[in-house]
Amino acid sequence: MGLSCRKKTTSTASQVAPASQKTYSATKPARIAILGASGYTGEECVRLLAQHPAFNVTVLTGESQAGKAFSDVFPHLVTATDVPNLIKVGDVDWDNVDAAFCCLPHATTQEILASLPTHIRVVDLSADFRLRDVSTYAEWYGGEHKAPELQKEAVYGLTEVYRNDIRSARLVANPGCYPTSVQLPLYPLLEAGLILTDDIIVDSKSGVSGAGRSAKQAFLYTEVAEGINSYGVSKHRHMPEIEQGLSDAAGSEVRISFTPHLMPMSRGMQSTCYVKMANNVTIDDLRQHLVNRYKDETFVHVLPEGQIPHTRHVRGSNYNLIAVFADRIPGRAIVISVIDNLVKGASGQAIQNLNVMLGVPEETGLMQQALFP
Amino acid sequence: MGLSCRKKTTSTASQVAPASQKTYSATKPARIAILGASGYTGEECVRLLAQHPAFNVTVLTGESQAGKAFSDVFPHLVTATDVPNLIKVGDVDWDNVDAAFCCLPHATTQEILASLPTHIRVVDLSADFRLRDVSTYAEWYGGEHKAPELQKEAVYGLTEVYRNDIRSARLVANPGCYPTSVQLPLYPLLEAGLILTDDIIVDSKSGVSGAGRSAKQAFLYTEVAEGINSYGVSKHRHMPEIEQGLSDAAGSEVRISFTPHLMPMSRGMQSTCYVKMANNVTIDDLRQHLVNRYKDETFVHVLPEGQIPHTRHVRGSNYNLIAVFADRIPGRAIVISVIDNLVKGASGQAIQNLNVMLGVPEETGLMQQALFP
Amino acid sequence: MGLSCRKKTTSTASQVAPASQKTYSATKPARIAILGASGYTGEECVRLLAQHPAFNVTVLTGESQAGKAFSDVFPHLVTATDVPNLIKVGDVDWDNVDAAFCCLPHATTQEILASLPTHIRVVDLSADFRLRDVSTYAEWYGGEHKAPELQKEAVYGLTEVYRNDIRSARLVANPGCYPTSVQLPLYPLLEAGLILTDDIIVDSKSGVSGAGRSAKQAFLYTEVAEGINSYGVSKHRHMPEIEQGLSDAAGSEVRISFTPHLMPMSRGMQSTCYVKMANNVTIDDLRQHLVNRYKDETFVHVLPEGQIPHTRHVRGSNYNLIAVFADRIPGRAIVISVIDNLVKGASGQAIQNLNVMLGVPEETGLMQQALFP
Amino acid sequence: MGLSCRKKTTSTASQVAPASQKTYSATKPARIAILGASGYTGEECVRLLAQHPAFNVTVLTGESQAGKAFSDVFPHLVTATDVPNLIKVGDVDWDNVDAAFCCLPHATTQEILASLPTHIRVVDLSADFRLRDVSTYAEWYGGEHKAPELQKEAVYGLTEVYRNDIRSARLVANPGCYPTSVQLPLYPLLEAGLILTDDIIVDSKSGVSGAGRSAKQAFLYTEVAEGINSYGVSKHRHMPEIEQGLSDAAGSEVRISFTPHLMPMSRGMQSTCYVKMANNVTIDDLRQHLVNRYKDETFVHVLPEGQIPHTRHVRGSNYNLIAVFADRIPGRAIVISVIDNLVKGASGQAIQNLNVMLGVPEETGLMQQALFP
Predict the structure, then answer these.
(1) D1–A50: do the CB atoms touch at under 8 Å?
(2) Fewer CB atoms near the end CB (10 Å): N or C, chain D?
(3) D47 Cβ contact partners less than 8 Å away, ≥ 6 residues apart
């Protein structure tokens, strides 16, 4: 055996399949469909699943590219084989599919998922099922929710927090990249009452791949390279999703300040969180609580005092690195969290969730270390 | 005449030379020395002065590179001529120098400047004379100040705030890049009591050129590209400089939260400032106050509601763009400020200051628009 | 005066206006229209002209953006003033225009230029009038030429080669970026018979801005960063333009190998040219011939033996740097040429040409040194 | 099983261990030492071996960093476990090591490898044993070879060409990145006499990681970003290595033109090769010969007509993509080859070689697809 990257004992529970469920393995792999495979998150699922022994990609859909070889759309995958051609979603033979990753654009997902046969387990990477309150959805996404019944069934897929519910879920709403980067460090601190709910300020920085692969002038190389900017100031759509999670953690409504920034890099995300500690709480208390909370988690790693995480430390990997620092203003702390927005912030966490749903060891297919430099 | 970039009437005062002083012009240019010219700020002075009609670079010093042509050190300037060779600072003939830009490293500057003939007007780009309190200097820079008398004489060179004092100064301490980006938006707001002094949180992002040209592993292309990270968390040396200025503005001691981030770009700096408004103050009040404060300033521009500045909008130029936004948390505001760290954050502001000191129109040599893309 | 960048005496001829022509100056500036100003070359004209004392931009056209402020389209120019709003080309009052830069897309230019009043001097940055042979145009650009009469009148605007014809031209066809980078070093060598016409192999590398500002997936940041690729192998449209020029120089038909490569950088272009020397010709002969040929030219600089030009040495400037090296294969030489594709490869050379056409000193507005780092 | 990436049947020979040799597997892994692990190629071995089931990294050496945790040197590997601390090479217990990757700098390797116990199988990533002729070594590397006897034993590790010799080798000299990218496409074409030996011109482009991790001004982010340049024109050290291989293929001495270029990207390498076809040979002949030659090879892939490989299509992977194009000059062809310089150009090919040497399936640990975007 090479280097073991499984430094932590994952809770055994995660390896027990629900009673009613088939067991998938290298000899009997689950048949996986990826809907909307022509975008970056779809492609990232394909890349990661190329090394997954228990999942077999048998269906790829893409409406405008149907009929093409996948490597016509993503030429770097000319070296992968057994990748099916793209077809239209209406042409999928669902009898021969066990589970699906849904990588369709926001708002197009609801009706398609509502129409799927119920034996299909789904991880949805769009935002369509993340917000429990459909009126909040309507407010931020500009339209009535078209599958409110299905919404009630959806489980929010922040794996390390909602693992038990995910295990038996039929539909998991995979978290957004920003919400993942913010909730993993702050959820436990709010839940334990170690930080206050007011004046939580989150300054986030994201790579460009978060904007997707559609041709837009704002994301041309010439418009992005060698410069940075804030965007969606005070009104980014991930805001209600973050607040929903943090409010759950705190047990009371939390309203945060959240400002995303576009970085000249393809992948990577950092959230720098400025928080107030509760009375008599110290920086060490925060760090130690996070260490304890995540000590059995493979993909969340809390750094020792003084170490600063870089987004390049998680490029291409499913890890989340967290660090806690004293602020110069007494009583305040700075919590830094980095992920790869396409992996732990999207397709990696989606696979992690499906592993949990299908009773496969949670780390399967996800143990790649960061690509550096 | 081409496009006029002087959209604002600069106060006439700035164009009147002090009584005792010579008048410099294209036909009788000031003779300029640049000390420590082999770093990026020295080179940037040379680049900008190549188009300055009233200043003539006659001396360049560089201890380890003395004897070389400047284009041996900066080959892109092979196309500039009349650039003197590098000499040692001990070999400068000060009788033929009118003014100097001092681009030496921190801590090496004090003794050299203390030894200069008193007819030399100096803009010092190091940190050595920025902090009025020499004990604060000793605390943050790790050594006793070696020219405390000269420190008393130094004027802090944030041009738009201290212009009157700069006009007659012999030694101007040019502000740091982070302090420039933070003070220009926040100084007027604190001075007018529109924002509170507590809980000022500044998340800053800088290009790599701020780290200088010395060979260090951490700033290799391979270590910087395609990723970001915080650094100097809670202990960056620009912190006391920012606090000194903001405390002056507020009339009481201000302690801020300040976290710098390293960006994969050569130039550019953004400070995203999270502040609390005073009672009954609105976002429009903040914006309008800044608009009024800077309406006659050429190099500070406050954007209208909704427009977001990019660092690439000021690349290579001496401008500072500022924008004000409502925060989602009631009572808070987000103030965004962008500069080019090597121009308004260093060499450009230094030239602006020397223009003021020598009675030359303040914009001279500084009207280049941003290089985009 | 600051640093003099005019290291070379420009031939006096270039400063003499044609007899029939008005004299333009800072007090009586030429009124300039920029057609198609919403792309990068249009914008680059605006940036450079912002510092041109004898040209005044009075008209900007952009069909789809008509009615907007120019800074709505290029926000970094919010700091420039007296920039006119965009209008439709049909709304231009040509009586109040002296000259025009035409930055319209290929194939749209012919009819517009054919319809202009004859008092307008035009520099056309499109490819429409570069090829003398309209059948070659039709072959490479996919359509009949719509203004063949005007084509006969057009002068090819490689300034250093065709200056005399440019001076009296009404319409100058500004060269493409690749053709500029290749012809400046190779034209004189072929003309003097120092290199052979066969087996000329040109491997060129270009920044992304050459692809323009239209939203295309292939030029997204995520598709371009951190990787390179050849494109248009054996069939790039600049090939006939290069061959036309080199054939003129050689006095016989030249057919070259030309392969362009897309680089992850916004600006800059290098052509690495692999050539065979004529009998008994040495590397020094090549270099010395180029040195002599360009010794009075401000914008073409031949480096001494052993120095290697970088594209970053000319970023934002109008310079062309050339270097000559021995090849390891006996009898062969390597000639390297770098320019900024948007300046000497487009808008800078266009201004240089209009300066010549209007009798203004050729360097006017173009003496900015490279922006480095 | 997920996607099968083994699209080709690897020759069964490669899976047969030499008779005299142990068999390694997941249950009985080989114990691997990495000498000089603190550079990028050492680190890349660690990254790739983290997923190798039959190799276990038990020793890491680094003279100046001895005593440190590996994640102190490469913080992104804080998420990998069972990674040994760095020790000095003199402290290695060779009795417990089966094989070594030697990632030491050129010229330091010879004496260390000559002193190793003979049971250790070694893949040397330095240049020290690549050149058969020690006088050529002395000429290009500036010093006498210190282990000429060992040199005679070394096998050149271009896996797809020398696999049979590699299988039984004790010391494999892993090819340089440029030589790998050039020889894989050109070796078969020369061997078959399809292209001529004269006038082979190779224009190569490399990412910055090829320069290593040592702090040098020339490789700072600010000196590399947003620009390109040739380097080592006519005198790069990889030239004799390429010529040695191509001469072997042709059966006569080959002298090439080779010019490397530094690209603003961390990883990736393209060689654009300009060649002359033999009489009556066509482009299709070239392509078809390469297709046939590599049809059973997993890591070399020849693209169909018209497809252009990008370096980003192989980022992080062990693949080599090759494409063949007609040149505009009759009788000439353009052959494009891309690899990741740190994987197929260094550590990936090294692992491929050790797999062959130790009788492990050749693709083990190397089936990661490219990371895109």
Answers:
(1) no
(2) N
(3) A369, A370, A371, A372, D77, D347
Catalytic residue among C45, C102, C103, C177: C177
* Burial class of D8 by CB neighbour count within 10 A (0 to 12, 13 to 18, 19+): middle
Q: Closest CB to B79: pick one of C5, C26, C56.
A: C5
**Which of the listed CATH numbers 3.40.50.1970, 1.10.540.10, 3.40.50.720, 3.40.50.11310 matches domain D12-175+345-357?**
3.40.50.720
Nearest to B4 among C76, C81, C369 (CB): C81
For the stretch A186-242, pLDDT in tens is: 999 999 999 999 999 999 999 999 999 999 999 999 999 999 999 999 889 999 999
Q: Cβ contact (<8 Å) for C213 and A220?
A: yes
Residue B237: half-sphere exposure toward Cβ, Cα within 13 Å: 18
Residues of A within 8 A of B373 (CB-CB) are 222-223, 225
Kindly report, residue by residue over B138-160, the tens digit of the pLDDT. 999 988 999 999 999 999 999 99
Q: Please answer yes or no on whether C266 and A222 come within 8 Å at the CB atom.
A: yes
For residue B102, give the nearest of B33, B179, B19, B48 by alpha carbon: B33
| Contact call for residues A373 and D43 (beta carbons, < 8 A) | no
Rg from Cα positions in chain D: 20
Chains touching chain D, criterion 3+ CB pairs below 8 Å: A, B, C
Residues of D near B (CB-CB distance < 8 A)?
40, 208-209, 213-217, 219-226, 264-266
Structure tokens at B232: 């100097």
How far apart CA A9 and CA D353 sit, in angstroms, is 34
- With CB atoms and an 8 Å threshold, state whether C43 touches B372: yes
Q: Is A288 helix (H, G, I), strand (E, B) or coil?
A: helix
How are beta strands B171-173 and B155-156 bridged, if at all? parallel
What CATH number does domain D178-341 carry, 3.30.360.10, 1.20.1310.10, 1.10.287.500, 3.10.105.10? 3.30.360.10
Which own/partner contact pairs does C147-152 have at CB distance under 8 Å and 24+ positions apart? C147/C110, C147/C111, C147/C113, C147/C114, C149/C114, C150/C110, C150/C113, C150/C114
| Predicted confidence (pLDDT) at residue D86 exceeds the cutoff of 70 | yes
Q: How close, in Å, is residue B265 to chain A by CA atoms?
A: 4
Among B250, B300, D359, D267, smallest CA distance to C227 is for D267
d(CA C218, CA C216): 5
* Nearest CA distance, D296 vs chain A (angstrom): 13
Closest chain C CA to residue D236: C328
In this complex, do D239 and C328 lie within 8 Å of one another by their Cβ atoms? yes
Q: Read off the pLDDT of residues D125-139 as tens digits, 9 standing for 90 and up.
A: 999 999 999 999 999
pLDDT at D327: 97
C-alpha distance from residue C189 to each of B270, C8, C250, D186, D201 (Å): 49, 21, 9, 31, 20
Number of A:C CB contacts under 8 A?
60
Q: Looking at residues D233-246, what average pLDDT do you find? A: 95
Beta-bridge partner residues of A310: B229
pLDDT at A4: 38
Sequence spans of domains, chain C:
12-175+345-357, 178-341
Dihedrals φ, ψ of D156, to 5°? -75, 130
The one catalytic residue in A45, A102, A103, A177 is A177
Is the CB of D226 less than 8 angstroms away from the CB of C315?
yes
A23 burial class (0-12, 13-18, 19+ CB within 10 angstroms)?
Answer: exposed
* CATH architecture classification, A12-174+345-357: 3-Layer(aba) Sandwich (3.40)
Residues of chain C contacting residue B31, judged by C-beta atoms under 8 Å apart: none
Q: A-chain residues within 8 Å CB-CB of C217?
A: 213-215
